[in-house]
Amino acid sequence: MRRNQVILKGLGASRGKAIGPATVILNIQQLDKVKDGDVIVTRMTTPDMVFVMRKAVGIVTDVGGMCSHAAIISRELGIPCVVGTGNATKILKDGMLIEVDGNTGVVYRYEENERINMLNKTSSTEFRIFGHKAKAIILKMSRDKPLCPENWNFKWPSVDVNQDYEWVAPRPEITGDPIGSLTVSGIEKIPYILGFSEIGPLYVRYYNATQYLRLDKIKMVMAALKEQIISRNKDFIDKYKDELYNSYKELDKITNEIQKKKSSFTTMDPSDLLNLFKKWWKVEDEFFARTYLIQAIGDDIVWPKVREILTEYFERDEADEYFTILSLPTKKTTSMEFFEDCITFINKFNTIKPLIFTNLSEKETIGIIKNMKDGKKWLKELENITKKWGWVRSRLFYHEPISDIEKMLRYMKKYFPKDATIPDVNKNAREYEDCIKKLSSTMPKEKLDELLFYVDLGKFLSEERDNHYYLFMRNSEVIRDLFLELGKRLREQGLLHDERDIFFLFIQEVFELFNPEIPVSDKQEILSKIPNRMNAFTYVSKIKLHDRPGYNPNATPIRDGEYY
User: Fold this and answer.
1) What pLDDT, on the 0 to 100 scale, is given for residue 122?
2) CA atoms of 227 and 544, how far apart (whole Å)
3) Considering 53, 139, 151, 329, which has the largest number of Cβ atoms within 10 A of its Cβ?
4) In whole angstroms, what is the distance from residue 27 CA to residue 42 CA?
5) 8 Å CB contact between 344 and 493
């Protein structure tokens, strides 16, 4: 067997080389496909994939750059990673033997006497954002006002809905999230939040179960950001950081306030439930506006600038080596704290550990361990782990959190590699300091200071890329429960087949369904769209959902513009 020609090219995000069979993961339900020694091939990685990433010898993603989750965690785990290939999940197939070269960003296929068709149809316009090329499509404006006017407090300029515009999906790996408009208002007001009000709103629409942004607007936003970053405008950057951390605090604060009222959800009036949500949503809106472009700032502005400076002084191979070391994580991200807590727990009880990985059910396993020496202590620590991390789940509201010890044990059992060790970020820190000493002997102080300014900013963005994701998951757990209670009320009225149907409504529609002044016929029109949205979501994400009249997981969805 020999290595054939290059099959994919992307960005080398974590150094090293590895060979293994490809395992294509399109959703969280497929994680149990991953075996020790596989190469994970996915649209993007998420925090709930950290366990299986530790099993893999390499990672390949469709999208992302140096600040993407796959890049950050691969560097922490010390496995090679290639991100931003564009279409790895379409070209690579399960079992295909491939080599991942994290140094050059190349993926090779091992194959005897077989030519690989590398033809890839691309649109005429591409825009690099979030570390990958987003292909533009032509669509008309679908609306001339905010999708969620309740949460809009800026001027919305007049819009010609008959004009064609180019649109891009900056995060194509994120299929149309249930509760589709939860983030729209925040994304649309990004220019205002960042102080670029002259740009106007960042228009959002849905197509192919995916969120698209108007290309001309996102280009303006990224150009304005680049101007502030490249000029090293300390006031702008410090203000951004301060307001970002303040949005974190405010989100925690309002979530804690709502959490205290959770026991009253079932007896609360629907209008009170909605008002409680609106209070949270207003804070979440600003949080999302401030966090949405964190990765893009790093991938498209900061880390490219680091590479540019290094190539001024060093040959490519040497510059790449320095770049890799400078981008290594030197602090633990939230993903790795979760991973480390679970590894420490499982490895702490040597006599109990083998039982975790048997074919017994979680209930049977817990029953046996209860009667073992240290069994009660083990059970107490498992309860503590579940309490601390139980909110970890897919970003989609549809999926449940890890709400009890059996689910936590099942999670560990399915995804935890038996021989996992804790990555040493202190080693990365030592390597980083040695690298700075070498650079200081070669580069002028002024240029080194400029380089370190961007490196420090890039590290900040990489860390916050991971941290804010977890922050959102933790703070949305109680909101998921609130929505399920609202869905239950609509089901009891005969409007929904299943309370989880509510996750396929836009926020504005949820408000309308609880508005007594809106005719039932208009409400039925809203609800008639749910099966098609479920079809669209399944078509793109491959996740099969609950049974509902009109929903067919094998159907090709109808493209109906805003609602597809």
Assistant:
1) 35
2) 44
3) 53
4) 8
5) no
Q: Are strands 39-42 and 17-25 parallel, antiparallel or unpaired?
A: parallel
What are the tens digits of pLDDT across the range 67-126?
888 998 898 888 899 999 989 999 999 989 899 999 889 999 875 333 333 222 334 688
Amino acid sitting at position 424: D
Beta-strand runs (E) in 117-215: 126-129, 132-135, 137-140, 164-168, 204-207, 210-214
Helix-helix angle 303-313:316-326, to 10 degrees: 140
pLDDT tens across 364-422, in order? 999 999 999 899 999 999 999 999 998 887 777 888 888 899 999 988 887 777 777 77
Instruction: Give the pairing of strands 81-83 and 58-61.
Output: parallel
Angle between helices 215-230 and 234-259 (to 10 degrees): 120
CATH class of 3-110: alpha beta
Q: According to CATH, where is 3.50.30.10 located in the chain? A: 3-110
Question: How would DSSP label each residue in 4-46?
Answer: EEEEEE-EEEE--EEEEEEEEE-SGGGGGG--TT-EEEES---
Helix, strand or coil for residue 144?
coil
